[in-house]
Write a structure and sequence with these properties.
The protein is an alpha+beta fold. It has helices at residues 5-9, 26-41, 62-83, 92-103, 121-124, 126-140, 151-161, 176-187, 193-209, 227-232, 234-243, 246-263, 288-296, 303-318, 367-370; strands at 210-212, 215-216, 383-387, 392-397, 402-407, 432-434, 453-454, 457-458, 464-471, 475-482, 497-505, 508-516. Helices cover 34% and strands 12% of the residues. Helix 3 (62-83) runs antiparallel to helix 4 (92-103). It comes from Streptomyces parvus.
């Protein structure tokens, strides 16, 4: 482990009897949450409404970033306290109650405490994202926080949260933010036609985005990534679980179960999730779906396998420097890493990792924590698995625990968006990803990529059109085609296309490309 992580977070000694693979128990998870929260709260404003963590601001600005610090850490505190039956040895909830009071007194005012207003996503969207974490934190801790607030503070909090119901989200998982806000308001007797509409709209879109095999597209395009586990599955199933809604739990739970059939294979033997897709600075949030499956019972995994995956992911990052000497999660992957980030990444963005602590909703006597750890799916025999809905071919090798994802179906291009090489995204455009590799500087030559060179310009892969996938006994294949686009000269060449197929068996892979319509030279 990183020399300082265990000391900084106050982790207890390893338990290799019940946790032979990771040494982590539920006590390690509680200590990790406590340590991260303690470090983050050192940067709170006097009233506690914002946690202004150090670092370069996001494009949303410092006030929004401070709200993000409050909201995302509140989510970790919510899981921590709710999972302990209301025990709050560090007085977290009093601080979050004070911050809620201070942040909602004069929302929109430019001062040290006031929260920014929730507006349309293209105007001032980030507060809408954070409203879901505030609402979920309040719902998780209702008996110990919300129910003890003065009525005027409750009213002010409701009015601020309703901004999420009255403004336009981005056309993707963002619709689950007003859904989550509405679910909280209804749970405390403040539901109405407005909350019902928000939930109906999100539910309609969620059904539209479901593509099968347990996978959702993140919007109307073909973006299949970690947002499945930490958003598209998490919000609706957790909402149904907290509400005790058996019908909705069964509906969303069946999809999560199917999702985990393939997704659980996408963690390496060292605990690493696949370095693929956007928002990777959320790190161990990648295990949130696995933890939620164990908590709700909607999982194909044995409890010991689930714990191996979630604890393996947490340990993977802690022992590789994700927590700095200041106790804060850095912007990056292991440690700071600019190539991992997006323009919306701010100092508190990594605390979306709090979603992994959903596992703490399983009490100490739950099978997740008392069953001995078992090997992760990637630690067994070599496997090759196709996921036709997403255009994925997943390949794992037990000898080294490495998992590879051959991507023939996921991109980050909206249906109404043109294909421009200037917008090439290395987190989606490559032919393959793994649990031991990641993108480097944009100045470096792209790996796992086939370029067509025309007039000295190398092509980029943007929109990916799947041609199919399948698997048999120990082998599998996936295929796609794309239109090469160029950063210089004409953006496309008439009639030019590239067809690609990957065949994998054991640790071997074969790629075949056919270039059609290439001009002379």
């Amino acid at each position: 482990m990183n020399a300082s992580a265990g000391d900084l977070l106050g982790l207890p000694p390893e338990d290799r009897t019940s946790s032979p693979y990771t040494g982590y128990t539920r006590a390690h998870w509680e200590a990790a949450a406590d340590g991260m929260l303690d470090a983050a709260w050192k940067w709170a404003t006097p009233g506690g409404a914002r946690l202004d963590l150090p670092g370069p601001p996001s494009h949303s600005g410092v006030r929004s970033d401070g709200l993000e610090g409050y909201a995302r850490t509140f989510l970790a505190a919510g899981f921590r306290v709710a999972g302990a039956g209301g025990k709050d040895p560090n007085g977290l909830l009093e601080r979050y109650a004070d911050g809620l009071d201070a942040g909602t007194r004069t929302p929109g005012r430019d001062d040290a405490e006031s929260w920014p207003l929730i507006l349309d996503h293209h105007v001032q969207g980030q507060p809408m994202v954070e409203s879901a974490s505030v609402a979920l934190g309040l719902r998780l801790t209702r008996p110990w926080l919300w129910d003890r607030l003065a009525s005027d503070v409750q009213d002010r909090a409701e009015q601020w949260l309703r901004g999420a119901l009255r403004h336009v989200p981005a056309g993707n998982n963002w619709y689950l933010f007003p859904y989550t806000v509405a679910g909280f308001l209804e749970s405390v007797g403040r539901g109405d036609a407005e909350t019902a509409r928000a939930r109906e709209r999100a539910s309609e879109l969620l059904e539209h985005w479901y593509r099968g095999d347990g996978w959702y597209a993140d919007g109307d395009g073909r973006a299949f990534d970690h947002y499945n586990g930490w958003a598209l599955h998490l919000y609706p199933l957790l909402d149904a679980h907290l509400a005790g809604d058996e019908k909705e739990s069964a509906h969303h739970g069946a999809r999560l179960r199917e999702h985990l059939e393939s997704f659980s294979l996408m963690f390496g033997g060292d605990g690493a999730p696949l370095h693929f897709g956007r928002s990777l600075t959320y790190r161990f949030a990648a295990s949130a779906g696995v933890g939620l499956g164990a908590v709700t019972g909607h999982t194909p995994l044995a409890p010991g396998v689930s714990r191996r995956v979630v604890s393996g992911s947490l340990r993977y990052f802690l022992e590789r420097g994700a927590v700095g000497n200041d106790g804060l999660l850095s912007l990056g992957w292991h440690g700071p890493h600019a190539a991992t980030l997006q323009s919306y990444s701010g100092p508190a963005s990594p605390y979306w990792a709090s979603k992994a602590f959903v596992a703490l909703l399983a009490p100490a006597e739950h099978p997740l924590w008392v069953s001995p750890e078992e090997a992760a799916p990637s630690e067994g025999p070599d496997r090759v698995l196709s996921v036709p809905a997403a255009g994925f071919l997943v390949q794992s090798t037990g000898a080294d625990g490495v998992v590879r994802l051959h991507n023939h179906g996921s991109d980050h291009v909206r249906p109404d968006e043109g294909e421009s090489a200037a917008d090439e995204d290395p987190h989606y455009a490559r032919l393959a990803y793994s649990t031991v590799t990641g993108p480097t500087s944009a100045e470096n030559t792209a790996d796992n990529h086939l370029s067509v060179t025309v007039g000295g310009a190398r092509s980029a892969r943007r929109r990916i059109r799947p041609l199919g996938s399948g698997h048999g006994d120990g082998w599998g294949w996936a295929a796609s085609w794309h239109l090469p686009v160029f950063p210089a000269g004409p953006s496309t060449v008439p009639g030019l296309r590239v067809e690609s197929v990957t065949v994998a068996r054991g640790r071997h892979e074969l790629r075949v490309h056919r270039v059609l319509g290439a001009p002379d030279g």
